[in-house]
Amino acid sequence: MDLPGGPPFTPWAKAIYERRRKDDLRGSPSERCLPSGLPGDMLIPTLPFKIVQTASVTVVLLEEFNNWRQIFSDGRALPVEPQPAWFGYSVATWEGDSFVVTTSGFNDQTWLDVGGTPHSERLRLTERYHRIDFGHMQIDYTIDDETAFTKPFSVSVGFVLQADTDLLDFQCENERYVSSRR
Q1: DSSP for the chain?
Q2: I need a surface site. Which of 1, 35, 87, 149 has the fewest CB within 10 A?
Q3: Does 167 map to a domain?
Q4: What is the CATH number of the domain that holds 53?
Q5: Does pTM top 0.85 for this prediction?
Q6: Does residue 34 sit within a domain?
Q7: pLDDT tens digits for range 98-157
């Protein structure tokens, strides 16, 4: 996470983060053809995503490994005791012109970013999608995980919309990726 001074790590998360950095970020989920996680999978500049919205569900199609996530906006609540999942479980509402997504129920196998920022299964992610103008969107991410961080923190990311871009068929060939990291 690109924050002045870095994220407010707990000792547990700081030790994991420092070990990952010392190991040159080896062992990322994508090395094993697994999802990198949220928000990381949406922050890879060379791998776009597409948002498909209906009245009751929004689907985010991710080019990396042809993954997707479902965001339910039909009034349901988050599961009380979800089975941990790669992208968690997401529900959303509209607050004015912002689409506010709350996600929980993550497994602890993903990274928050390509820099190796860890999280636990207690992660709760809030995303505020806001269309700034015709060609730009901003997402404000709030990370809340008392196991990994001493307090919640937020980052804002701007996106340039690419309306005429199609997602490509991106398959994982982990032998190629792993050997290139050695």
Answers
A1: ---TT---B-HHHHHHHHHHHHTTTTT-GGGGT----TTGGG--TTS-EEEEE-SSEEEEEETGGGEEEEEE-SSPPPPSSPPPBSS-EEEEEEETTEEEEEEE-B-SSS-SSTT-----TT-EEEEEEEEEETTEEEEEEEEE-TTTBSS-EEEEEEEE--TTPPPP-----HHHHHHHH-
A2: 1
A3: no
A4: 2.40.128
A5: yes
A6: yes
A7: 999 999 999 999 999 989 999 999 999 999 999 999 999 999 999 999 999 999 999 999
